[in-house]
Amino acid sequence: MRDTIYCVLCVLLTLALVVLSGRYIIGDLWLLAFFESLQTHFSLACIVGALLAFAVKRHWYAVLLGIVAVALLVHSVIMLKEHSATAPAAAATPTYRLLSFNIDNDNFANGERIADLIIGSKADVVEVFEAQPLLSQMARLEQAYPYRIGCGAVTKDCDSLLLSTRPFQRQLIRNLSVLWQQRFFMAIIDFDGQPINFASAHLSKPYFDEFHEYELTVLYYILYWIKGPTILAGDFNASVIAPDMQKFLARAGLNHVFPEPSTWPIEAGAYGISIDHVFARPPLQLKSVKQIPDAMGSNHYGLMTEFTIAK
After folding, report:
1. pLDDT confidence of residue 124
2. Sign of dihedral through CA atoms 173, 183, 28, 303?
């Protein structure tokens, strides 16, 4: 019986580690995208499994599985930190705020509560994804945020929404692929004499096809022509350790905080993964990015970001 349990555990662990190692053997493959974003979590689970197998039967193969799992875990942490930047001093000024949140298109029951959150946040700029539940709250939101893109302003639909307390110097709207329309917004906003590019992106899920990598390529070329301090927030549906995300961040020269707060699944709380991100291009610096602990009926947590401009 002991040998059978050991054998089953080792077979399951071997299959899991082969899947996690696929990125190193065959490169980026969309079929593995779900596992790639969860490499840290699956590696930890495999370490526990290897310890359990070794406890059942002290055999070299369980040790080998544990070593491979540890190596995958260590590399995942290295990748999580690879494009992070040191936060500026807490005293760095001036400090501005960005609220970003995928509120879920079907979350109509909480539209009023989410509008209350936005108004009470005192954020300078707000970026909302799947914003349909806020359509009925536009009159209230306009009092606090008189400038907007989305939900009847510039665009007819109410998928993405960008709100600002300050006027736009320039606006840009693009499609990232044929799957969804107008899921990239950008507005140049003057902050005390400094123009800042606020970009908003909502990407497709990476584990159905190759559209995710294609959309990141389109997004890179859009950002390539944008100069000056830039902050990009969005629902990327992937962790920064996914191969196409690593490539995108390196090419675009963007960085993020470490550790990033988890945003999905909400059932995992602080132990989930970050698929909603806030990225910055110097001289813009991220001081903090924090999870909004109440998901308010969404399947994502929102993020509150404080940022400044390096002098």
Report:
1. 97
2. positive
**pLDDT for 196-226, tens place per residue?**
999 999 999 998 788 999 999 999 999 999 9
The model's pLDDT over 229-246, given as tens digits with 9 standing for 90+, comes to: 999 999 999 999 999 999
H or E stretch at 130: none
CA distance linking residue 193 with residue 212, whole number of Å: 36
Burial (Cβ within 10 Å: 0-12, 13-18, ≥19) of residue 55:
exposed
The answer to whether the Cα torsion of 126, 212, 76, 249 is positive or negative is negative
What are the beta bridge partners of residue 160? 129
Alpha carbons 193 and 102: distance in angstroms, whole number:
30
Q: What is the pLDDT of residues 261-280, one digit of tens each?
A: 999 999 999 999 999 999 99
Burial class (CB in 10 A: 0-12, 13-18, 19+), 287: middle
Q: Which conformational region is residue 250 in: left (phi greater than 0), alpha (psi within -120 to 50 degrees), or beta?
A: alpha
Strands 184-191 and 168-174: antiparallel
Give 118: exposed, middle or buried? Use CB within 10 Å, 0-12, 13-18, 19+.
buried
